[in-house]
Design goal:
homoheptamer; 91 residues; mainly beta; 10 Kd Chaperonin, Protein Cpn10, Chain O; 0% helix; globular
Chain lengths: 91, 91, 91, 91, 91, 91, 91
């Protein structure tokens, strides 16, 4: 299977579908002005001199609705976004 | 319960509802051009090299109406915002 | 009474009402393209690494009409603004 | 009389009226795309770490039409502008 | 044959046509808000003091739909883009 | 005669009229998307820490059509512009 | 003949006409979203502290359609552009 290595301060994130998103106790309200989405970090870039990477594989993250670029790999959807578009990790 | 850890120079804030907001003596006028809101800091990020964190858990804060991104956790609403969107602390 | 501590390079200013503003000899013309307003500094932030605070409590200041965010505390109106939005002090 | 002390890299300028402005040999053309205006520096700020003050009291200056903020002090009009909005000094 | 040497932090990329793009397991969804494209790096610039080059010849890359400038060389199409427009490498 | 001393990284330029502009062999095409103009440097500022002055009095320069601010001195038109708006010198 | 010396990080480029542009094997497609053009570097500036010059006289270059400012010298058209507007050199 092809492997995607994000460049610079980007991360590859596998989104968690809305149905699953209420399981862990976090519900994204429908009327939020900018709804955050939830996903799992699959791969991280090497960072830049301005942005060291703090995210790592398997981190669960919240990110803005318009963050990053969607791609499809082996039939699954992923998003490549900059680390600075990630709002928080969920533990 | 899931725990949200804000990234970089962000803070997780629990808003204080409008009804409660007159108790401490602070009333936000309805005709203000940009009304600040009030909340309690729940969690803070680790900061960045440009922005060290001065806010800490339990701080009461004022922030702009359009600051940050709303999320819902275990049925409660929170806002994730950058520390620079926080106007002041209340003591 | 609640105490507001401005964050970073912000100051808390108590505006001086228009009626009082001609007493000290300073009149703001009605046809000015951007009318400055006058107030008294109530509290100052700790500054940032880019902006050290030069204003201090009790300073009388002139500031632009659209500077900062209005709040109401114990029935009085205040404005929280960045120090860089303050045009001048009055002595 | 109240004294105005400009903040940071700002200067307080007393404009020279149009009628007087042809006396020194400098006429501002009516069809210029952005007409500079002429005035006298009354007070200067302390500068910033990025902008040291080179202007001083009594300097005659040319500045852009939209520079700064008008104020009125003891019945006279002044303009508070950033030093970087001053185009030139006149000797 | 003429050889193109990208300047600064640019790379010369030969796009992989859409038909070929499903072979390696990566499919770009039609409804993505900004579809990434895939290509092969043909030549890289020398970088700048702000952007060291991490890409090298023969790297397979994903890049945004609007990245760079198209050119045609000996009947083949190429794109010159900044390294920062490259989202990820594919291994 | 009044003397104008440009501030910071500005230069005072006396434009050369269009009729004269074909004498030296340089013709500005009428259909150029942004026509450069030609003039002579009359005075230069002291520069800034970011922009040292390389232009000097008597330099002939080309500059963009919308560069700077026109002024009139003793009946003659001049332009005050930033050095960075000067495209080239002519020798 | 007048000689043009570009200022700062600018280069003077003599465009190669479209008819000649297919000789060297490089054809600019008509449907490209921003067509690069080809030319020869005639003169280079001295650079700035942020941008050292890597281009030199006689380099053949590709540049964006909207790069720089056209001038006419002794009946020939030239373009003055910033080095950062040059996409690549051709060898």
């Amino acid at each position: 299977m092809a492997k995607i290595q994000p460049l610079a301060d980007r991360v590859l994130v596998k989104p968690i579908e809305a149905e699953e998103r209420t399981v862990g106790g976090i519900i994204i309200p429908d009327n939020a002005k900018e709804k955050p989405l939830r996903g799992t970090v699959i791969a991280v870039g090497n960072g830049t001199k301005d942005e060291a990477m703090v995210l790592k594989e398997h981190d669960e993250v919240l990110y803005g609705k318009y963050a990053g670029t969607e791609i499809e790999l082996d039939g699954e959807k992923f998003i490549i976004m900059r680390q600075s578009d990630v709002l928080a990790t969920i533990k």
